[in-house]
Amino acid sequence: MGETKTVTLTRDLTLTSTGGGGEALPQVEIPKQLGAVELVREIGKGGMGVVWLGRDNLLGRDVAVKFLLHAVASEDDPDFAQFLEGARAAAALRHKGLNTVLHADVISGVPFIVMEYVDGPTLGQVLQRTGALTLAATRVVMNAACEAVGVLHDAGIVHRDIKPANILLGQDGSIVLTDFGLACPRPRLSMGSRVEAVAGTPTYMAPEMFDKNVSARSDVYALGITMYELLIGTAPFEGTLEEVREAHRSTPVPVENLEPFEPSLAEVVGRATNKNPMFRLKTGSSMLVALEEAFAKCNPMVSNKARGESELAALTQRTLGRAGLVDGGSKATPQVTYYDRLNTLVQKRKESDGGEGIDLVERVLEEAKCWRCSSPLKGEPLTGRCPGCLLLVREAMRARSGGDAATTPVPTPGATPSSEPAAARVNEPPAKPGPNTTTAPATTPAGKGLRSKLRAAWRNFLGG
Ligand SMILES: Nc1ncnc2c1ncn2[C@@H]1O[C@H](COP(=O)(O)OP(=O)(O)OP(=O)(O)O)[C@@H](O)[C@H]1O
Ligand SMILES: [Mg+2]
Questions:
Q1: What is the pTM of this model?
Q2: What residues have their beta carbon closer than 5 A to ion ligand 2?
Q3: Among residues 158, 156, 271, 161, which one has the least CA distance to residue 215?
Q4: What pLDDT is stored for residue 266 in this prediction?
Q5: Tell me, which fold does domain 1-117 have in CATH?
Q6: What was the pLDDT predicted at 197?
Q7: Beta-carbon contacts of residue 96 (< 8 Å; ≥ 6 apart)
Q8: What are residue 27's DSSP bridge partners?
């Protein structure tokens, strides 16, 4: 017998109005090849179905295929028409923060949706492995999530299932909201019956959703709960479905737990999770504006976006590393990227130059120390930040000649809206020349040499 040409999916109709009854879960065989997409392996299961990694052999790219195992559908089923309507609305949207919907169909009664594959963990997996995020990482995630939800709301779409498990963290630093193509009304997946078995979802549900009233403000509520969870490490209400539903209806979210971070952040989460949708922030975009105003009041040292981005990148890698140990790796089909080629080039150069090689980044060459925290700067990229206090390396170098780190007054964090420029100003002697006089390798003969090396490297790289 040759290679198997089908995969077996297990339907779970216990959540539909017609299914259930304690019978064995029905299995359905579907072809491994769905048009141009070949199903490679299962990536994960959620409350509504299962997601497979697929390979589009025509276009040479990986995709994610989500099968909705709770719905019964055929082309003439009204549910399927609604499912398609939602998928169509989602497919019309293009935004870096939204998981692009590529195709939707039904096979052997199982609706499925083909999406862009995101090579990285969900925010839920990151939280599970590492606990609460820092303020800086929370800011980056919430910014991206609110912006993406704002785009949906502007297009008249309500997501209805915003939660960390539906936010994907790409290894390229992307933050992508997924599952919004499934946001269409699905009467068979009525809210009451669906949540009976979906343990994670009620945690983020606005009170009115338990009464089947849904609006953009319900998404805002879920964003508020998500933000609370990111900062505290656990969602505000946990327990049985009944307990959680009751808490959403009558217990205020304990936003006072967020006050030590910054009272204005606690206030925004309070406005997002008001029991009455009328008093809530209206859309993802209005939540984004309110949050940015609140973050602007935080100590800039701890809410710095660049810092948040690098922390998130590290968390993503750590989560992937651990996932790899558990399930043998969940990597997609390897693809050679631009950066891989660049790395190979640098590696080859290093070998042929007897280990010295060229570096494509300009670095601090001298034994310099950061004026503010005294961390050594030698070897740091000139465009980077001090490893000790995150001051821009150029700033850390510039002020060095104007003051000694040990005697220079350290500016009080939070004393100004942005401590970094302020720090540079505090320490900068008025008559001091600009950055080029102390660093600026680009203007030195060594810098010129580097540039010509770079040009030659580029010519090689491009095959010229
Ligand atoms: N576009 C995607 N690219 C890569 N992996 C994905 C993609 N979408 C989902 N996944 C993976 O599939 C797993 C299962 O996703 P699924 O949406 O079924 O679960 P869930 O989000 O926990 O539940 P729900 O059905 O309520 O959304 C996720 O945990 C994630 O690891
Ligand atoms: Mg999901």
A1: 0.69
A2: 46, 166, 179
A3: 158
A4: 97
A5: Phosphorylase Kinase; domain 1 (3.30.200)
A6: 34
A7: 174, 176
A8: 10
